[in-house]
Amino acid sequence: MMETVKQESAAEDAAGIIKNISGMFASVDMPRLAEDGLYTGAPYGVLVNLSCALERQIDENDNRRFYNRMRYAGIVKERTENTYHWDDGTYPNMAPGLIEQVLALSFIGDKKNIIMAGPSGVGKSTLAVILACKALRRGFSVKYRTAHDIVTDLQEARQGDSLSRYINRMQACDVLVIEDITYSDPDSKTAHDFFSIIDKRYGRKSTVVTTNGNLKEWAEVFPDKKMYAALLGRLYEDAFVLNMNGAKDMRLSRAQGMFLGVERAIVKNEAQ
After folding, report:
1. Which of 40, 41, 145, 167 has a 20 to 30 A CA-CA distance from 130?
2. What is the pLDDT of residues 34-59, one digit of tens each?
3. 220 in helix, strand or coil?
4. Cα pseudo-dihedral 24, 13, 32, 53, rounded to 10
């Protein structure tokens, strides 16, 4: 009786692994190998090894595609939530739970923007990269550029007669991250082109902006005051505003911590 139970359990385990194998082959569009009957009767150990090998290969392929998409988006290194540490006291001027809310990525489906404002070193860029990488992992298309790079790209695209294609690419992605938006100084024509990107995304796609300074002061460089007002309206309307002012300089704190650790090690060695 016990032997029969063991045999039935082994058969169920084998059937489960076979389903997993055929399902993985189906997921990579290999229907000829996605038939359960091909693996029926194979030794249990062979099935386990095949299943594990397929899982590893699929994971490697997924990661390879992700890193290719990440490089195409303009991101050098993946960042995750594990590399970003905050608590309720980190950003004294920010509403509690707002970071967790934007990290859920629901803003993308809702076509909302995100504006992160604060001085250098408080984590704006880190959070922007985390959001971009999470969006890529979820299958969204992403472009990650500094405002200065966008201005330069627009000027070069205009000279090369590829302006409309560039604007369309910037408009089409699900998430456009614009870093250091106040560190750009577009000329009159480029300012209109920049506005065109924001205008085409308005209400259709999500834009994430980081800024060290005052967006209103920056937007005043736009020669057309109506366009200036419209630009701010399109960025701010129904946006999540992450006020990071008042936070400690994370980079400085890490540097000080490293220096303190080295100093303590020196003192300890001298004492010995």
Report:
1. 167
2. 898 888 888 888 888 999 999 999 88
3. coil
4. 50
pLDDT digits (tens, 9 = 90+) for 165-211: 999 999 999 999 999 988 888 888 998 999 999 999 999 999 999 99
| pTM score | 0.78
Give the phi and the psi of residue 179 in degrees, each rounded to 5: -85, 145
CA pair distance 194, 70, nearest whole angstrom: 23
> What are the structure tokens assigned to 205, written together?
């796609």
CA distance 31 to 194: 47
- The answer to whether the CB of 135 falls within 8 A of the CB of 174 is yes
Q: Which residues of 66-95 are buried (b: 16+ CB within 10 A; e: fewer)?
A: eeebbeebebeebbeeeeeebeeebbeebe
**Start-end ranges of CATH 3.40.50.300 in the chain?**
81-251
Superfamily of domain 81-251: P-loop containing nucleotide triphosphate hydrolases (3.40.50.300)
How far is CA 63 from its chain centroid? 14
**Residue 272 to residues 253, 259, 266: CA-CA distances in angstroms?**
29, 20, 10
What are the strands of the beta sheet with 175-179, ordered from one edge? 142-146, 175-179, 206-211, 114-117, 240-243
Q: Give the separation between CA 15 and CA 39, rounded to whole angstroms.
A: 9
First to last CA, the chain: 70
The owner of tokens 């200065």 is 148
